[in-house]
Amino acid sequence: MKALVEEPEPQALAPAPPEVRAEGPRVTAFHGFRSILIGALLVIALSALTLHSNLRFDRYITASSLPSGAVFMFVAVMLANALLGRIAPRRALTVSELALIFSMLFVSAALPQASVAETLVSLVSATTYPASGSPSIGLFGERMAGWLVVRDGEAVRLFFEGMPSGGGAIPWAAWLAPLLGWSVFVLLLLWALYCLSRIFTHRWVREERVSFPLMELPMELLGGIGSPRPLWRNPLMYLGAAIPATTILMGQLHGWYPFIPGFQQIYSVKIGEGWTAPPYNALSEFTFSVWPMVIGISYFISGEVARSIVLFHLLFWAQLLFWSMLGYGPGRAEAVAGAFSPLEWIHYMEFGGAMALSVVLFWPIRRDVTRAAGALLRRERDTSLPVPPWAVGGFLAGTAGMLAWSAAAGANPAVVAAFLLFLYAIVIALGRMVAAGGLYLVDNDFTPQGILYGLSGVRGIGGSTHYVLTGQESLFGRADMSFFYFAINDSKLAHQTRTEGGRHSLGIAVATLAALASAYVFILLWGYRYGANSFTAWPFSWRVPDQFGLMAGYLGTPRGPNPWTYLGVGVGIGVALLLVYLNRRFLWWAVSPFGFVMGSSWNVAYQIWSSVLIGGVIASLIRRYGGLKVYRALRPFFLGLILGDAVPYTLIVLVESLVGVKAGG
Fold this sequence. Notes:
Order of helices and strands: HHHHHHHHHHEEHHHHHHHHHHHHHHHH
Structural class: mainly alpha
Helix content: 55-70%
Radius of gyration: 24 Å
Number of helices: 26
Number of domains: 1
Distance between the termini: 59 Å
Strand order of the largest sheet: 1-2
Largest sheet: 2 strands, antiparallel
């Protein structure tokens, strides 16, 4: 019987980069302060670049599980540090300092953009702006507590439409209370998710040795410092980097100079585009894409996980075809009205699978959590426990704080508790896929509020609870860039570089606060300068209005529990448990069960699955016919595919922001 739910990581064949030990006498309090200060400044700089490029030019450099902007900043720091090492070796940053700086950039990179800040600013302001795009947004503003909504209509109008030509003072005071009010909930959730990641760290990192393919590049960069043949000196890395770098740069030059042939960062073909007649029109969006970066990441994931991503995505399309043959087309409106919807049925099953798999993941550590809770109650400091007592206490305190916050905002704490329980189940299951499968982009269409409405109905949830839930759903329901994913991946890096401890946690806290605070300032500055109506970022144009439009649909047809939700969730739980049993019981069933919760993912469908297929096949063939020596020798080439995408793309975004012109217009 297999002990794990997926096969051992590829490093079992090809060892990961060597652990980087802290340089004893050089790691002082000064170095800790210096690295945190440099990291905080870089986080603020990355926040500015991220928001300016996203709001003005619709560029995304941090909206992924391995943010390109963070990689770019880190590479720039390493190059500058290498130069400093030649000029003044005693002043150069140590490996531990560099690792902490990367951790700060990596964990906080997604917060300024759609992950939190953009959505939050849109959330507190759109309710006061008549042209926000959803008829129910105004109701939100009326029902919510005054400290959660910007009440100054003129301040909001100028933010969306821009300051007059003469300029004027930005009304910071009008935004202070709602931004701080919602930020309390945000920080409590981020803290709870950080603690949750530390609860799973020992099991995933040290016992199960999950592969964490997204950390291969930074660990290789850090592990190569001082080695006889670092990654920078390997020609295979440059060969791999040249492939995505060429396509990205040529595509950019084509935008500026149309006579230059254009290339794409991602090559996509809609295979089912010509299938317009039923039932095959259900496959009209079936897409095959090639993304060199994802191929590079996929080289480092296990065969079981790669097969899982591909297989369950293909089964998703097979299900749509099956229901189409029975006369059911995919739709969202049917689910709101309580009727059967194939697409929503699949989402219900995936959520049931996430619930079951999160329990499966928690089950092996339940006694460790109990022991940690006991030590916490007895006020014992036992550093030998696999689960830190502070992580259990912090998680419970953060959750309790969010329930208290929700009660103060006028919501029913019991309903919010169910929302949080569903959210935790989603991020744990998806977080395992990010950790084991290196999913560069991840998203979920089974969201806590939608599942909650399906299970309890709308009638049983009254008052302002609907509006608080919709605000929380807007911020975190689409768990595509959950803080948990970044924190659990960072735990692998911290363990590999031996930088775990109080200084590391302090750096993460400083980075989080710096990212959020600077993001609010930058968004408001550019909103009053350019007018938020000109922003192309989807939290302003889609996410928040869409969520309130959905809520209006639910409230417009108040109904009880949806039996399809119960049935779908139940079937999903059963399927997930069956997959776990098959994976553990039979050696020939070499498919991880975790791909089941990602089958219908939009990002997997349009940008990930086929590149995972390509990368997985290449890695499998190399391991089979080339063996350990060839597999290890080719690692730099596939790391180059990752590096050659992240660095040139962010460099182009930086040039665009400095010049003020985006390629193509």
